[in-house]
Amino acid sequence: MLVLRIVNEYPEELEADFLEFFGVDLLDLWRGSLSLRRVGVLIKSLMTKHGRSTLLQSMDERASWAESDYLLARISDAMELSNFIAIKANAEGVDDLAFPSPIPRPGEQEPEDTEPETSHFASADELADFFGGMNSL
Protein backbone atom coordinates (compact mmCIF):
# COMPACT_ATOMS: atom_id res chain seq x y z
CA MET A 1 0.00 0.00 0.00
CA LEU A 2 1.49 3.32 -1.11
CA VAL A 3 0.30 5.24 1.96
CA LEU A 4 2.11 2.89 4.35
CA ARG A 5 5.28 3.01 2.28
CA ILE A 6 5.29 6.84 2.35
CA VAL A 7 4.59 6.86 6.10
CA ASN A 8 7.47 4.42 6.68
CA GLU A 9 9.99 6.08 4.34
CA TYR A 10 9.29 9.78 5.05
CA PRO A 11 7.82 10.06 8.57
CA GLU A 12 9.51 13.35 9.55
CA GLU A 13 8.66 15.11 6.29
CA LEU A 14 5.09 13.86 6.39
CA GLU A 15 4.64 14.95 9.99
CA ALA A 16 6.02 18.42 9.24
CA ASP A 17 3.78 18.88 6.18
CA PHE A 18 0.67 17.58 7.96
CA LEU A 19 1.20 20.07 10.78
CA GLU A 20 2.08 22.99 8.48
CA PHE A 21 -0.63 22.60 5.86
CA PHE A 22 -3.47 20.83 7.65
CA GLY A 23 -2.88 21.21 11.40
CA VAL A 24 -3.02 17.41 11.72
CA ASP A 25 -0.63 15.45 13.91
CA LEU A 26 0.64 12.27 12.25
CA LEU A 27 0.77 10.63 15.68
CA ASP A 28 -3.03 10.66 15.59
CA LEU A 29 -2.70 7.71 13.21
CA TRP A 30 -1.31 5.60 16.08
CA ARG A 31 -3.68 7.13 18.59
CA GLY A 32 -6.61 5.93 16.50
CA SER A 33 -8.10 9.33 15.64
CA LEU A 34 -6.68 9.46 12.09
CA SER A 35 -7.52 6.85 9.46
CA LEU A 36 -5.25 5.55 6.70
CA ARG A 37 -7.81 6.75 4.17
CA ARG A 38 -7.52 10.33 5.48
CA VAL A 39 -3.71 10.07 5.48
CA GLY A 40 -3.93 9.04 1.82
CA VAL A 41 -6.19 11.98 1.00
CA LEU A 42 -3.82 14.41 2.73
CA ILE A 43 -0.79 12.93 0.96
CA LYS A 44 -2.60 13.31 -2.38
CA SER A 45 -3.20 16.96 -1.53
CA LEU A 46 0.48 17.44 -0.64
CA MET A 47 1.45 16.24 -4.12
CA THR A 48 0.07 19.52 -5.54
CA LYS A 49 2.22 21.76 -3.34
CA HIS A 50 5.41 21.98 -5.42
CA GLY A 51 7.99 24.33 -3.95
CA ARG A 52 6.42 24.15 -0.50
CA SER A 53 6.06 20.51 0.55
CA THR A 54 8.93 18.96 2.48
CA LEU A 55 7.65 15.52 1.49
CA LEU A 56 7.79 16.31 -2.22
CA GLN A 57 11.26 17.82 -1.92
CA SER A 58 12.49 14.64 -0.23
CA MET A 59 10.93 12.45 -2.89
CA ASP A 60 12.13 14.53 -5.86
CA GLU A 61 14.63 17.38 -5.67
CA ARG A 62 13.02 19.11 -8.68
CA ALA A 63 9.89 19.71 -6.57
CA SER A 64 11.79 22.23 -4.44
CA TRP A 65 10.92 24.83 -7.07
CA ALA A 66 7.36 25.84 -7.86
CA GLU A 67 6.23 26.16 -11.48
CA SER A 68 6.60 29.94 -11.26
CA ASP A 69 10.28 29.52 -10.26
CA TYR A 70 10.92 27.43 -13.38
CA LEU A 71 9.14 30.01 -15.55
CA LEU A 72 11.18 32.85 -14.06
CA ALA A 73 14.40 30.93 -14.69
CA ARG A 74 13.41 30.34 -18.32
CA ILE A 75 12.59 34.02 -18.77
CA SER A 76 15.89 35.04 -17.22
CA ASP A 77 17.84 32.61 -19.41
CA ALA A 78 16.07 33.87 -22.54
CA MET A 79 16.74 37.50 -21.62
CA GLU A 80 20.42 36.81 -20.98
CA LEU A 81 20.72 35.03 -24.31
CA SER A 82 18.88 37.84 -26.10
CA ASN A 83 21.17 40.45 -24.53
CA PHE A 84 24.23 38.38 -25.45
CA ILE A 85 23.12 38.17 -29.09
CA ALA A 86 22.29 41.89 -29.26
CA ILE A 87 25.65 42.88 -27.77
CA LYS A 88 27.57 40.50 -30.05
CA ALA A 89 25.72 41.81 -33.10
CA ASN A 90 25.92 45.52 -32.36
CA ALA A 91 28.98 46.23 -30.24
CA GLU A 92 32.58 46.42 -31.34
CA GLY A 93 35.42 44.73 -29.49
CA VAL A 94 33.33 42.18 -27.59
CA ASP A 95 34.93 39.07 -29.04
CA ASP A 96 35.85 37.85 -25.55
CA LEU A 97 32.28 38.16 -24.22
CA ALA A 98 31.40 34.91 -22.42
CA PHE A 99 28.33 32.97 -23.50
CA PRO A 100 25.68 33.22 -20.75
CA SER A 101 25.15 30.13 -18.65
CA PRO A 102 21.59 29.16 -17.66
CA ILE A 103 20.37 29.33 -14.10
CA PRO A 104 20.93 25.92 -12.49
CA ARG A 105 17.70 24.05 -11.80
CA PRO A 106 17.31 21.67 -8.85
CA GLY A 107 17.67 18.02 -9.77
CA GLU A 108 19.23 18.73 -13.16
CA GLN A 109 22.81 18.15 -14.23
CA GLU A 110 25.02 21.20 -14.68
CA PRO A 111 25.40 21.98 -18.38
CA GLU A 112 28.82 21.45 -19.86
CA ASP A 113 30.80 24.63 -20.46
CA THR A 114 30.83 24.59 -24.21
CA GLU A 115 31.21 27.79 -26.15
CA PRO A 116 29.17 27.93 -29.32
CA GLU A 117 31.18 27.82 -32.51
CA THR A 118 31.39 31.36 -33.87
CA SER A 119 33.72 30.84 -36.82
CA HIS A 120 30.91 30.56 -39.38
CA PHE A 121 27.59 32.15 -40.11
CA ALA A 122 24.47 30.25 -39.13
CA SER A 123 22.67 28.30 -41.81
CA ALA A 124 18.98 28.78 -42.54
CA ASP A 125 18.19 25.56 -40.65
CA GLU A 126 20.19 26.70 -37.61
CA LEU A 127 18.36 30.04 -37.60
CA ALA A 128 14.98 28.32 -37.90
CA ASP A 129 15.87 25.99 -35.01
CA PHE A 130 17.06 28.91 -32.89
CA PHE A 131 13.98 31.06 -33.44
CA GLY A 132 11.74 28.02 -33.04
CA GLY A 133 13.39 27.37 -29.66
CA MET A 134 12.97 31.03 -28.64
CA ASN A 135 9.32 30.83 -29.60
CA SER A 136 8.80 27.83 -27.30
CA LEU A 137 10.23 29.70 -24.29
How would you sum up this structure, described in words?
The structure is a single chain. This protein has seven helices and no strands. The chain is 57% helix and 0% strand. With 137 residues, the protein is mainly α.
Summary tags:
137 residues, single chain, mainly alpha
Task: Provide a brief overview of the structure.
The chain has 137 residues and is mostly helical. The protein has seven helices and no strands.
Number of strands: 0
Global Rg: 23 Å
Q: How are helices and strands ordered from N to C?
A: HHHHHHH
Query: What do the pLDDT scores average to?
Result: 86
Task: Summarize the SSE layout with pairings.
Blueprint: H1 2-9, H2 11-22, H3 28-31, H4 36-46, H5 54-59, H6 67-90, H7 124-136
